[in-house]
Amino acid sequence: MTHYQQFCNNSDSRWPIQALLQPENDRESQLMAFDDTKAGVKGLVDAGFTIVPDIFVRPPDRLECAGENQFEIPVIDLAGVGSDPIKHKEAVRRMGSAMEEWGFFRSVNHGIPASLLEEVIDGSRRFFEEDHQVKKKYYSRDFSKSVIYNSNMGLYTSPALDWRDSIFSFMAPDPPEPEELPQACRDVLLEYSKEVMKLGSCIFGLLSEALGLPQDHLMKMGCMEGYSFMCHYYPACPAPELTLGATRHCDNDFLTLLLQDQMGGLQVLHEDHWVDVPPLPGALVVNIGDLLQLISNDKFKSAEHRVIANETGPRVSVACFFGHTRVPSQRLYGPIKELLSEDNPPIYRETTLRNYTAHYIKKCLDGTSALLDFKLDQAQ
Q1: Domain with CATH 2.60.120.330 in the chain
Q2: Helix 186-210 vs helix 114-128: angle between axes, to the nearest 10 degrees?
Q3: What is the pTM of this model?
Q4: Which fold has domain 71-324?
Q5: What is the pLDDT of residues 98-120, one digit of tens each?
Q6: Disulfide-capable partner of 321 in 55, 175, 253, 364 (CB 3.0 to 4.6 Å)?
């Protein structure tokens, strides 16, 4: 008996997915049926199901989820970096080392109040736990919309679905009208976005210096022009050994700032080991994306990461991305010329953000880096 047969036999007949996701249907029909509910993974949980549908099940070789503990994620203290030259220099040194070795670090004393961080998590959770009729008006796969709620952005292209639902919005340079954001999290996300923009400016300045460039170099390149957020909701999973909360991937931006609750589940790939990134109260997880690896000519590394599924939940996180805008720019990005030399020739060809993103999406998060196809030896 397949997972779907168990699901259909055990489900409440009033739940529309019981009639839509029949075991004899092909995968595309099952995906369409799931999408048509506009209720996401939480809708499955609310229906009281006790199995993981086949469209979420992953091959066993992609599900080894035990995290290693012999490594420790770098923690960088940002207190005083704007006023104390010694602390500033140390932050630059540590940040450069973290981005070269890990592509990840956890930031503490970053200036965003702990109370606001808690409110952001609470507000995000409120949205996902609202009545289905309230949420579904935001449900869409049309990225021209200001605010998009759905389950799995790559629903029809991913080899297996992630056990999570998300809400996404571009916030700069063309923010939505406040009333376009869900009331459950509107005010707190607007306030948080202002704080993240200030923190992003600080981190980009430190990263510029870590590359040996003037403090405003990455800003002048437009790395902060595009800013968006994505709130994720990972419901409790009845069989976490069969699926993932988020498949392994690198981010396709310049920089990501992640706020996670205390549930845990985030892992980063380091020296061929999956390493747990445990929650640290008041901290933000910072990682670079593919585009910063590209323009730094591999000086900084964009590390693969994922989220494991868990029997307990929900897990809530909020990721803020710097790099993309709703209206694509034609600006070309390639290795920064000031970093190049005879001993350090360019590794990548130039690309626009739009072209890179299109290729990244085409790769379908298949576990291989989209950057490989932009290497000069691949382009020739």
Answers
A1: 71-324
A2: 130
A3: 0.92
A4: Jelly Rolls (2.60.120)
A5: 999 999 999 999 999 999 999 99
A6: 253
